[in-house]
Amino acid sequence: MIESVLNNHVDDYKSVSVEDYIAMRKKHFAHKKEDFTALKPYQSIVVLALSFPLEQAKYKGKGYGYISRYAHGMDYHLVFREKLRNIEEALAKENIQAKGNVDINSIDERFAAFLAGMGFIGHNQFLIHPTYGTHLYLATLLVDKTVTTTDYLLDDCGECTRCIDACPGNALAPHSFDIEKCLSHITQEKKPLSTAEIKKFKSNIFGCDICQNVCPKNKGITPIKRSVFESDENAQIHLRTLLESSNKELMKRYENYAFAWRGMSVLKRNALALMLNQKDDSLEYYALKLSESLPNTPWLQTTINTIMKEVK
Ligand code: B12
Ligand code: SF4
Ligand code: SF4
Protein backbone atom coordinates (compact mmCIF):
# COMPACT_ATOMS: atom_id res chain seq x y z
CA MET A 1 0.00 0.00 0.00
CA ILE A 2 2.66 2.56 1.10
CA GLU A 3 4.79 1.43 -1.84
CA SER A 4 2.13 2.13 -4.48
CA VAL A 5 1.34 5.59 -3.02
CA LEU A 6 5.02 6.55 -2.99
CA ASN A 7 5.68 5.14 -6.47
CA ASN A 8 2.88 7.38 -7.77
CA HIS A 9 4.46 10.55 -6.43
CA VAL A 10 8.26 10.35 -6.29
CA ASP A 11 11.17 9.02 -8.36
CA ASP A 12 12.68 6.97 -5.55
CA TYR A 13 12.39 6.34 -1.83
CA LYS A 14 14.33 4.45 0.82
CA SER A 15 13.62 3.96 4.48
CA VAL A 16 15.59 3.98 7.74
CA SER A 17 14.10 3.30 11.16
CA VAL A 18 13.75 6.29 13.47
CA GLU A 19 15.63 4.28 16.10
CA ASP A 20 18.65 3.74 13.82
CA TYR A 21 18.64 7.35 12.63
CA ILE A 22 18.67 8.68 16.21
CA ALA A 23 21.37 6.20 17.26
CA MET A 24 23.61 7.19 14.32
CA ARG A 25 23.08 10.91 14.92
CA LYS A 26 24.05 10.46 18.56
CA LYS A 27 27.12 8.48 17.50
CA HIS A 28 28.41 10.86 14.79
CA PHE A 29 26.96 14.24 15.83
CA ALA A 30 26.89 14.04 19.67
CA HIS A 31 28.27 17.59 19.92
CA LYS A 32 25.15 19.00 18.19
CA LYS A 33 22.80 18.04 21.06
CA GLU A 34 19.85 17.57 18.70
CA ASP A 35 16.23 17.34 19.86
CA PHE A 36 14.54 14.19 18.49
CA THR A 37 11.14 14.70 20.17
CA ALA A 38 9.31 15.29 16.86
CA LEU A 39 10.63 11.99 15.41
CA LYS A 40 9.81 9.72 18.36
CA PRO A 41 6.08 9.10 17.65
CA TYR A 42 7.08 7.50 14.32
CA GLN A 43 8.73 4.21 13.31
CA SER A 44 10.36 5.07 9.98
CA ILE A 45 11.95 7.96 8.14
CA VAL A 46 11.27 7.43 4.45
CA VAL A 47 13.59 9.58 2.35
CA LEU A 48 11.92 10.72 -0.88
CA ALA A 49 13.73 11.78 -4.06
CA LEU A 50 12.67 13.85 -7.04
CA SER A 51 15.24 14.11 -9.79
CA PHE A 52 15.75 17.22 -11.92
CA PRO A 53 16.99 17.39 -15.51
CA LEU A 54 20.64 17.75 -16.47
CA GLU A 55 19.98 20.18 -19.31
CA GLN A 56 20.55 23.81 -18.49
CA ALA A 57 20.45 27.17 -20.21
CA LYS A 58 23.86 28.34 -21.48
CA TYR A 59 25.19 31.37 -19.57
CA LYS A 60 24.59 34.52 -21.63
CA GLY A 61 27.74 36.22 -20.36
CA LYS A 62 28.48 39.78 -19.24
CA GLY A 63 25.46 41.64 -17.88
CA TYR A 64 23.74 38.50 -16.57
CA GLY A 65 23.76 36.57 -13.32
CA TYR A 66 23.34 32.80 -13.49
CA ILE A 67 21.09 30.95 -11.09
CA SER A 68 22.36 27.60 -9.86
CA ARG A 69 20.72 24.63 -11.64
CA TYR A 70 18.75 23.31 -8.66
CA ALA A 71 16.77 26.57 -8.53
CA HIS A 72 15.64 26.60 -12.19
CA GLY A 73 11.95 26.08 -12.84
CA MET A 74 9.44 25.82 -10.03
CA ASP A 75 10.65 25.90 -6.43
CA TYR A 76 11.15 22.25 -5.38
CA HIS A 77 9.76 23.08 -1.93
CA LEU A 78 6.40 23.94 -3.53
CA VAL A 79 6.44 20.83 -5.74
CA PHE A 80 7.39 18.58 -2.81
CA ARG A 81 4.87 20.18 -0.41
CA GLU A 82 1.97 19.39 -2.71
CA LYS A 83 3.18 15.83 -3.19
CA LEU A 84 3.70 15.38 0.56
CA ARG A 85 0.16 16.59 1.25
CA ASN A 86 -1.25 14.12 -1.29
CA ILE A 87 0.84 11.29 0.15
CA GLU A 88 -0.25 12.09 3.74
CA GLU A 89 -3.92 12.14 2.68
CA ALA A 90 -3.70 8.88 0.72
CA LEU A 91 -2.00 7.12 3.65
CA ALA A 92 -4.45 8.55 6.22
CA LYS A 93 -7.27 6.82 4.33
CA GLU A 94 -5.48 3.54 5.14
CA ASN A 95 -5.05 4.54 8.79
CA ILE A 96 -1.34 5.20 8.35
CA GLN A 97 -0.15 8.42 9.98
CA ALA A 98 2.59 10.21 8.09
CA LYS A 99 4.26 13.63 8.29
CA GLY A 100 6.15 15.03 5.32
CA ASN A 101 8.96 17.59 5.52
CA VAL A 102 11.26 19.27 3.07
CA ASP A 103 14.41 21.19 3.99
CA ILE A 104 13.79 21.35 7.70
CA ASN A 105 16.72 21.54 10.02
CA SER A 106 15.55 18.83 12.43
CA ILE A 107 16.30 16.04 9.93
CA ASP A 108 19.58 15.91 8.06
CA GLU A 109 18.17 14.69 4.75
CA ARG A 110 21.45 13.57 3.15
CA PHE A 111 22.54 11.68 6.25
CA ALA A 112 19.10 9.99 6.49
CA ALA A 113 19.30 9.13 2.76
CA PHE A 114 22.74 7.60 3.26
CA LEU A 115 21.55 5.51 6.23
CA ALA A 116 18.46 4.46 4.23
CA GLY A 117 20.72 3.08 1.47
CA MET A 118 19.80 5.60 -1.24
CA GLY A 119 23.38 6.44 -2.14
CA PHE A 120 26.66 7.66 -0.71
CA ILE A 121 27.83 11.07 0.48
CA GLY A 122 30.56 12.32 -1.82
CA HIS A 123 33.47 14.63 -1.02
CA ASN A 124 31.28 17.36 -2.53
CA GLN A 125 28.81 16.72 0.35
CA PHE A 126 26.05 15.50 -1.95
CA LEU A 127 23.95 12.41 -1.61
CA ILE A 128 24.97 10.66 -4.84
CA HIS A 129 22.29 8.38 -6.26
CA PRO A 130 23.14 5.50 -8.68
CA THR A 131 20.62 6.66 -11.32
CA TYR A 132 20.29 10.40 -10.72
CA GLY A 133 23.80 11.29 -9.50
CA THR A 134 23.58 14.60 -7.61
CA HIS A 135 20.55 15.70 -9.64
CA LEU A 136 17.93 15.05 -7.02
CA TYR A 137 16.03 16.94 -4.36
CA LEU A 138 15.35 15.23 -1.05
CA ALA A 139 12.44 15.28 1.39
CA THR A 140 11.41 13.02 4.27
CA LEU A 141 8.23 11.30 5.34
CA LEU A 142 7.86 10.20 8.97
CA VAL A 143 5.62 7.12 9.07
CA ASP A 144 4.08 5.38 12.11
CA LYS A 145 4.74 1.93 10.54
CA THR A 146 7.86 0.01 9.71
CA VAL A 147 8.70 0.57 6.05
CA THR A 148 11.25 -1.80 4.59
CA THR A 149 13.29 -1.07 1.46
CA THR A 150 16.40 -2.61 -0.10
CA ASP A 151 19.67 -0.65 0.01
CA TYR A 152 21.58 0.07 -3.18
CA LEU A 153 25.11 -1.29 -3.42
CA LEU A 154 27.37 1.26 -1.78
CA ASP A 155 29.57 3.30 -4.14
CA ASP A 156 32.28 5.80 -3.12
CA CYS A 157 34.58 8.51 -4.50
CA GLY A 158 37.56 6.18 -4.83
CA GLU A 159 40.70 8.14 -5.66
CA CYS A 160 38.80 11.05 -7.21
CA THR A 161 39.30 14.56 -5.79
CA ARG A 162 37.91 16.61 -8.69
CA CYS A 163 35.36 18.58 -6.64
CA ILE A 164 37.98 19.38 -3.98
CA ASP A 165 40.37 20.64 -6.66
CA ALA A 166 37.72 22.65 -8.53
CA CYS A 167 35.93 24.31 -5.57
CA PRO A 168 36.40 28.09 -6.02
CA GLY A 169 36.27 28.74 -2.26
CA ASN A 170 38.50 25.85 -1.09
CA ALA A 171 35.52 24.81 1.01
CA LEU A 172 36.01 21.06 0.48
CA ALA A 173 38.50 18.56 1.84
CA PRO A 174 38.12 14.78 2.18
CA HIS A 175 35.21 14.29 4.61
CA SER A 176 34.98 17.95 5.55
CA PHE A 177 33.24 21.09 4.44
CA ASP A 178 33.73 24.71 5.52
CA ILE A 179 30.41 26.48 5.07
CA GLU A 180 31.94 29.96 5.42
CA LYS A 181 34.08 29.33 2.34
CA CYS A 182 31.30 27.86 0.18
CA LEU A 183 30.23 30.20 -2.61
CA SER A 184 26.69 28.86 -2.45
CA HIS A 185 26.52 30.00 1.18
CA ILE A 186 28.21 33.34 0.38
CA THR A 187 25.63 34.10 -2.35
CA GLN A 188 22.76 33.42 0.08
CA GLU A 189 23.85 34.96 3.38
CA LYS A 190 22.80 38.45 4.46
CA LYS A 191 26.20 39.49 5.74
CA PRO A 192 28.89 42.00 4.75
CA LEU A 193 31.11 40.48 2.07
CA SER A 194 34.89 40.82 2.16
CA THR A 195 36.89 41.85 -0.91
CA ALA A 196 38.06 38.24 -1.32
CA GLU A 197 34.44 37.00 -1.27
CA ILE A 198 33.30 39.69 -3.73
CA LYS A 199 36.08 38.68 -6.16
CA LYS A 200 34.68 35.14 -6.32
CA PHE A 201 31.54 36.26 -8.16
CA LYS A 202 32.19 35.35 -11.80
CA SER A 203 28.88 34.34 -13.36
CA ASN A 204 26.58 33.04 -10.61
CA ILE A 205 24.23 35.39 -8.79
CA PHE A 206 22.77 32.61 -6.62
CA GLY A 207 24.18 29.23 -5.62
CA CYS A 208 27.12 27.32 -7.09
CA ASP A 209 27.18 24.14 -9.19
CA ILE A 210 30.90 23.57 -9.68
CA CYS A 211 31.29 20.57 -7.34
CA GLN A 212 28.39 18.87 -9.16
CA ASN A 213 29.43 19.82 -12.68
CA VAL A 214 32.90 18.28 -12.31
CA CYS A 215 31.68 15.08 -10.64
CA PRO A 216 32.23 11.96 -12.79
CA LYS A 217 29.31 10.29 -11.00
CA ASN A 218 27.02 12.61 -12.98
CA LYS A 219 28.22 11.10 -16.31
CA GLY A 220 25.61 8.86 -17.91
CA ILE A 221 22.93 9.54 -15.31
CA THR A 222 19.29 9.57 -16.38
CA PRO A 223 17.19 12.01 -14.35
CA ILE A 224 13.47 12.16 -15.10
CA LYS A 225 12.48 14.93 -17.55
CA ARG A 226 9.92 16.87 -15.55
CA SER A 227 8.67 20.09 -17.13
CA VAL A 228 8.32 21.97 -13.80
CA PHE A 229 12.09 21.72 -13.27
CA GLU A 230 13.20 22.71 -16.79
CA SER A 231 15.45 25.76 -17.19
CA ASP A 232 13.44 28.79 -18.24
CA GLU A 233 14.11 32.46 -19.03
CA ASN A 234 14.60 33.21 -15.31
CA ALA A 235 17.60 30.86 -15.06
CA GLN A 236 19.72 33.94 -15.68
CA ILE A 237 18.92 37.41 -14.53
CA HIS A 238 19.66 40.61 -16.41
CA LEU A 239 21.60 42.61 -13.81
CA ARG A 240 20.48 46.11 -14.79
CA THR A 241 16.81 45.05 -14.98
CA LEU A 242 17.14 43.52 -11.51
CA LEU A 243 18.65 46.70 -10.08
CA GLU A 244 16.01 48.87 -11.77
CA SER A 245 13.11 46.88 -10.24
CA SER A 246 11.62 47.30 -6.78
CA ASN A 247 11.92 44.39 -4.32
CA LYS A 248 8.13 44.14 -4.33
CA GLU A 249 8.00 43.76 -8.13
CA LEU A 250 10.78 41.17 -8.02
CA MET A 251 9.19 39.10 -5.25
CA LYS A 252 6.04 38.91 -7.34
CA ARG A 253 8.01 37.93 -10.48
CA TYR A 254 10.05 35.26 -8.72
CA GLU A 255 7.67 34.03 -5.99
CA ASN A 256 7.62 30.46 -7.33
CA TYR A 257 11.41 30.12 -7.55
CA ALA A 258 13.71 28.55 -4.95
CA PHE A 259 16.11 31.50 -5.18
CA ALA A 260 13.49 33.99 -3.92
CA TRP A 261 13.43 32.83 -0.31
CA ARG A 262 16.38 34.96 0.82
CA GLY A 263 14.81 38.14 -0.51
CA MET A 264 15.80 40.45 -3.33
CA SER A 265 18.35 42.66 -1.53
CA VAL A 266 20.79 39.71 -1.47
CA LEU A 267 20.42 39.25 -5.23
CA LYS A 268 20.95 42.99 -5.78
CA ARG A 269 24.11 42.94 -3.64
CA ASN A 270 25.35 39.96 -5.68
CA ALA A 271 24.51 41.83 -8.91
CA LEU A 272 26.87 44.65 -7.85
CA ALA A 273 29.63 42.14 -7.11
CA LEU A 274 29.18 40.64 -10.59
CA MET A 275 29.21 44.11 -12.18
CA LEU A 276 32.49 44.89 -10.43
CA ASN A 277 34.16 41.72 -11.70
CA GLN A 278 32.61 42.07 -15.17
CA LYS A 279 33.84 45.70 -15.33
CA ASP A 280 30.36 47.06 -15.99
CA ASP A 281 30.53 50.85 -16.32
CA SER A 282 27.09 51.37 -14.76
CA LEU A 283 28.24 49.92 -11.42
CA GLU A 284 28.67 53.25 -9.60
CA TYR A 285 25.22 54.48 -10.66
CA TYR A 286 23.49 51.31 -9.42
CA ALA A 287 25.57 51.06 -6.24
CA LEU A 288 24.50 54.58 -5.24
CA LYS A 289 20.88 53.88 -6.15
CA LEU A 290 20.82 50.68 -4.05
CA SER A 291 22.63 52.35 -1.15
CA GLU A 292 20.06 55.19 -1.07
CA SER A 293 17.09 52.82 -1.27
CA LEU A 294 18.15 50.73 1.78
CA PRO A 295 20.04 53.11 4.11
CA ASN A 296 19.31 51.07 7.27
CA THR A 297 20.67 47.73 6.09
CA PRO A 298 24.20 47.53 7.57
CA TRP A 299 25.33 44.29 5.87
CA LEU A 300 24.41 45.77 2.49
CA GLN A 301 25.92 49.22 3.12
CA THR A 302 29.21 47.67 4.26
CA THR A 303 29.39 45.50 1.14
CA ILE A 304 28.60 48.44 -1.15
CA ASN A 305 31.42 50.44 0.51
CA THR A 306 33.82 47.53 -0.02
CA ILE A 307 32.81 47.27 -3.67
CA MET A 308 33.22 51.01 -4.24
CA LYS A 309 36.73 50.94 -2.71
CA GLU A 310 37.65 48.37 -5.40
CA VAL A 311 36.42 50.72 -8.17
CA LYS A 312 38.60 53.61 -6.99
C1 B12 B 1 21.96 24.34 5.35
C2 B12 B 1 21.98 23.77 3.95
C3 B12 B 1 22.90 24.30 3.06
C4 B12 B 1 24.03 25.21 3.52
C5 B12 B 1 25.11 24.28 4.14
C6 B12 B 1 25.37 23.04 3.28
C7 B12 B 1 26.15 21.92 3.94
N1 B12 B 1 26.94 21.22 3.12
O1 B12 B 1 26.03 21.64 5.11
C8 B12 B 1 24.45 25.89 2.17
C9 B12 B 1 23.71 27.19 2.00
C10 B12 B 1 25.94 26.16 2.00
C11 B12 B 1 23.93 24.86 1.18
C12 B12 B 1 24.41 24.80 -0.11
C13 B12 B 1 23.96 23.87 -1.01
N2 B12 B 1 22.90 23.06 -0.89
CO1 B12 B 1 21.93 22.80 0.75
N3 B12 B 1 21.03 22.33 2.31
C14 B12 B 1 21.08 22.75 3.56
C15 B12 B 1 20.08 22.00 4.44
C16 B12 B 1 18.84 22.89 4.62
C17 B12 B 1 20.62 21.54 5.78
C18 B12 B 1 22.01 20.85 5.69
C19 B12 B 1 22.69 20.88 7.01
O2 B12 B 1 22.06 20.98 8.02
N4 B12 B 1 24.00 20.84 6.99
C20 B12 B 1 24.73 20.97 8.19
C21 B12 B 1 25.22 19.59 8.71
C22 B12 B 1 24.16 18.54 8.93
O3 B12 B 1 26.11 19.07 7.79
P1 B12 B 1 27.52 18.49 8.27
O4 B12 B 1 27.71 18.69 9.73
O5 B12 B 1 28.51 19.06 7.33
O6 B12 B 1 27.35 16.91 7.98
C23 B12 B 1 27.40 16.38 6.66
C24 B12 B 1 28.74 15.75 6.28
O7 B12 B 1 29.79 16.23 7.04
C25 B12 B 1 28.54 14.27 6.39
N5 B12 B 1 29.00 13.60 7.61
C26 B12 B 1 29.49 14.11 8.75
N6 B12 B 1 29.74 13.12 9.61
C27 B12 B 1 29.39 11.98 8.99
C28 B12 B 1 29.47 10.67 9.44
C29 B12 B 1 29.01 9.65 8.59
C30 B12 B 1 29.06 8.25 9.05
C31 B12 B 1 28.53 9.95 7.28
C32 B12 B 1 28.06 8.92 6.34
C33 B12 B 1 28.50 11.29 6.85
C34 B12 B 1 28.94 12.26 7.72
O8 B12 B 1 27.15 14.06 6.36
C35 B12 B 1 26.45 15.24 6.55
C36 B12 B 1 25.63 15.36 5.31
O9 B12 B 1 24.31 15.21 5.61
C37 B12 B 1 19.76 20.74 3.54
C38 B12 B 1 18.37 20.13 3.75
C39 B12 B 1 18.34 19.22 4.99
N7 B12 B 1 17.41 19.45 5.88
O10 B12 B 1 19.15 18.31 5.13
C40 B12 B 1 20.00 21.27 2.11
C41 B12 B 1 20.60 20.33 1.04
C42 B12 B 1 21.73 19.57 1.66
N8 B12 B 1 21.15 21.26 0.06
C43 B12 B 1 21.03 20.84 -1.14
C44 B12 B 1 21.58 21.53 -2.25
C45 B12 B 1 21.07 21.11 -3.63
C46 B12 B 1 22.55 22.54 -2.08
C47 B12 B 1 23.39 23.22 -3.17
C48 B12 B 1 23.79 22.34 -4.31
C49 B12 B 1 22.69 24.44 -3.74
C50 B12 B 1 23.52 25.15 -4.80
N9 B12 B 1 23.54 24.64 -6.03
O11 B12 B 1 24.10 26.14 -4.52
C51 B12 B 1 24.61 23.71 -2.35
C52 B12 B 1 25.70 22.63 -2.29
C53 B12 B 1 26.82 22.94 -1.36
C54 B12 B 1 27.52 21.67 -0.91
N10 B12 B 1 28.61 21.30 -1.59
O12 B12 B 1 27.07 21.01 0.05
C55 B12 B 1 20.29 19.51 -1.23
C56 B12 B 1 21.29 18.38 -1.52
C57 B12 B 1 20.72 17.29 -2.41
C58 B12 B 1 21.69 16.14 -2.53
N11 B12 B 1 21.54 15.37 -3.59
O13 B12 B 1 22.55 15.92 -1.71
C59 B12 B 1 19.60 19.45 0.18
C60 B12 B 1 19.44 18.06 0.76
C61 B12 B 1 18.23 20.16 0.02
C62 B12 B 1 17.14 19.25 -0.57
N12 B12 B 1 16.01 19.19 0.15
O14 B12 B 1 17.27 18.63 -1.56
N13 B12 B 1 22.99 24.08 1.71
S1 SF4 C 1 28.90 24.68 -4.00
FE1 SF4 C 1 30.70 25.65 -5.00
S2 SF4 C 1 31.80 26.72 -3.35
FE2 SF4 C 1 30.34 25.29 -2.36
S3 SF4 C 1 31.51 23.41 -2.01
FE3 SF4 C 1 30.57 23.18 -4.05
S4 SF4 C 1 32.11 23.99 -5.52
FE4 SF4 C 1 32.69 24.68 -3.46
S1 SF4 D 1 33.93 14.85 -7.93
FE1 SF4 D 1 34.98 12.94 -7.39
S2 SF4 D 1 35.55 13.27 -5.22
FE2 SF4 D 1 33.97 14.76 -5.69
S3 SF4 D 1 32.04 13.76 -5.11
FE3 SF4 D 1 32.35 13.35 -7.30
S4 SF4 D 1 33.40 11.34 -7.30
FE4 SF4 D 1 33.58 12.18 -5.23
Q: Note the run of SSEs as H and E.
A: HEHEEHEHEEEHEEHHEHEHHHHH
Query: Which geometry do the CA atoms define?
Result: globular
Category by helix and strand content? alpha+beta
Distance between the termini: 66 Å
Report the portion of residues in β strands. 5-15%
Strand order of the largest sheet: 1-2-7-4
Rg over CA atoms:
21 Å
Contiguous low-pLDDT stretches (5 residues minimum) are: none
| Ligands, deduplicated | cobalamin, iron/sulfur cluster
What about the largest sheet? 4 strands, antiparallel
Q: Bin the helical content.
A: 25-40%
Number of helices: 13
**Mean pLDDT, rounded to whole units?**
96
Number of β-strand runs = 11
Keywords:
312 residues, alpha+beta, four-stranded antiparallel β-sheet, 13 helices, binds cobalamin, binds iron/sulfur cluster
